[in-house]
Amino acid sequence: MRPFEGRRILLGITGGIASYKSVMVARLLAQAGAEVDVVMTRAAQEFVGAITFEAVTGRRVYSEIFGSGNALDHIKIAREASLFVVAPATADFLARAAHGLADDLLSAALLANTSPVLLVPAMNDRMWSNAQTRQNVSHLEQLGYDVVEPEEGPLAVGEGEGPGRMPEPEAIVARIARSLERKGKLASLRILVTAGATREAIDPVRFISNHSTGKMGIAIALAAWRRGAAVTLIAGHVDVPIPGMLSTTRVGDVAQMRDAVAQNLPSTDVLIMAAAPADFRPSSPASQKMKKGKSSESGAIQLTQTDDILKSTIANRKPGSVVVGFALETENLLANSSSKLDGKQLDMIIANSAVEKGAGFGGDTNRVTILSRGGGREDIALMSKTELADVILDRIEALIDGR
Ligand code: CTP
């Protein structure tokens, strides 16, 4: 699984209670195809056994700096790593790392390391807020280490809540993925992604909408975030959770989505309109709930077309920016998509069928054809929406490159 396949990750475990979560981190990384070299401090082994990490990574676990045959382990494992991660990183480890100590295998390997470093602190909230720790963290950041902000939440039993909690394994793995990829071509570009369905009010309790679940748009936003982009997600109604690392604006109807796009567009480098805005809205939504059996209600709802978000905002796009649309069709897929590409002044359109098995709304897979301005056409095989998100971003990178 991208970007882990074949990558060697050094995962340092220090002696904090959160180290039980690191077992899951190691397991997820190994399942995604990474080779995980676990290095445990002596204190870490008080919390979790080395054998547990060996079982989930299928590789030897390193812990001793002394001992025959281990003399150059700290150099070897550091040299082979694409990324050096320490999770959890205790206050003590941060202090030792900040001062360049090298009195155990993990700290010695950190000094010998030249790959990017990701530190995931976890500790009691008062230890995290302590001036000494703050100073160590800011020094480590100055050294170029990436320090993940601990989460607020329940700490060890009886210690209440506060900042200091290690993020959940999935979130740490996402950060690791971002650290592996963020030097790519999308790094630091501003990317705006829309996702999900809008809801157009009929009355205060009813609406017109569609079957969009937001899966495709959220997958694209997440993949762009992983590639180091500054991502803003504008989400209508979605049926899947939105990952916390995405900066998200929630909207209800087309008018709100249009306003949010209009506000962001002038500073956006790449707009990806994966949302399914409703095409029609009730002309005059009732201010009170419509009651059945009332003589004033004919049962007919007068509809008006909504604004086309792309058409009504595109004039304010940033010069040189890339605009990508989606086309969902039930017939004449390519001809209809091609006229949307021209009519909406897009650089690229992702054509997908609402009726083909495995494609379109709802499922976890999609099969699309990518049409580009100037006549380019590429048929993409059926694949998961997560994989497709990366294919789409690869094509956007190629387009930016070719300019
Ligand atoms: N779109 C938009 N504003 C709308 C409707 C759609 O900006 N009110 C965007 C979609 O996000 C998508 C593209 O336009 O990127 C094409 O959407 P689609 O629903 O396939 O086409 P429509 O423009 O709605 O045209 P039609 O109803 O004729 O298929």
Q: Which molecules other than protein and nucleic acid are bound?
A: cytidine-5'-triphosphate
- The tally of domains stands at 2
Provide the CATH architecture of the largest domain. Answer: 3-Layer(aba) Sandwich
Biggest sheet strand line-up? 12-11-8-13-16-17-19-20
Return the CATH topology of the largest domain: Rossmann fold
Shape: elongated
Distance between the termini: 30 Å
Sheet-strand content, in percent, reads 15-25%
Mean pLDDT: 94
Major beta-sheet overview? 8 strands, mixed
Under CATH at level 1, the class of the largest domain stands as: Alpha Beta
The unreliable regions are none
Q: What is the number of strand segments?
A: 21
**Number of alpha- plus pi-helical segments:** 13
Helix content: 25-40%
List the helices and strands and how they pair.
Blueprint: E1 8-13, H1 19-31, E2 35-40, H2 50-57, H3 73-80, E3 83-89, H4 91-98, H5 105-112, E4 117-121, H6 125-129, H7 131-142, E5 146-147, E6 151-154, E7 161-165, H8 169-181, E8 190-195, E9 200-203, E10 206-208, H9 215-226, E11 230-235, E12 247-250, H10 254-264, E13 270-273, E14 280-282, E15 303-305, H11 309-313, E16 322-329, H12 333-343, E17 348-353, E18 365-366, E19 368-372, E20 377-379, E21 383-384, H13 385-401
Parallel strand pairs: 1-2, 1-3, 3-4, 4-5, 8-11, 8-13, 11-12, 13-16, 16-17
Antiparallel strand pairs: 6-7, 9-10, 14-15, 17-19, 18-21, 19-20
The protein binds cytidine-5'-triphosphate.
